[in-house]
Input
Amino acid sequence: MTTTTRAAPGDLVAALRLPVWNTLSARAEGLRRALPPRPDAPAERFSWLRSLTPEQARDAALLEHLDALCGHLAGKPALGYAPDDPLPDAALEAAEGFNPQLTTLITRYRAARAAAHDGAQDAARADGPGRGR
Output
């Protein structure tokens, strides 16, 4: 990707999706290694969750959250996130601060997204009531 001062949000989505996924995946893998092995069966998982210390339980909850976000970025929409949202804010927040270049791209994406949103609102106001008659 070429470096520009203004990039379209779609271009930044393409540039961000993999690095955000990589960051979230690495964080999830670190948590997965630090926690006791997590069983797949629901009843066993419930017992596993109850056996965790409070710190481990927080890490397990974060692991679930990161796994859901990674799935969403990979095209498997996660509960609580719009299926057509390619980069939920939660994914950006979870990836921010671990890599300076990625954090800069996230900041640019947010600015471009806000500018696009503001432009759409301005266009809607220009078309306001009574226009086009």
Notes: The chain has a mean pLDDT of 86. The radius of gyration is 19 Å. The CA atoms of residues 9 and 114 lie 9 Å apart.
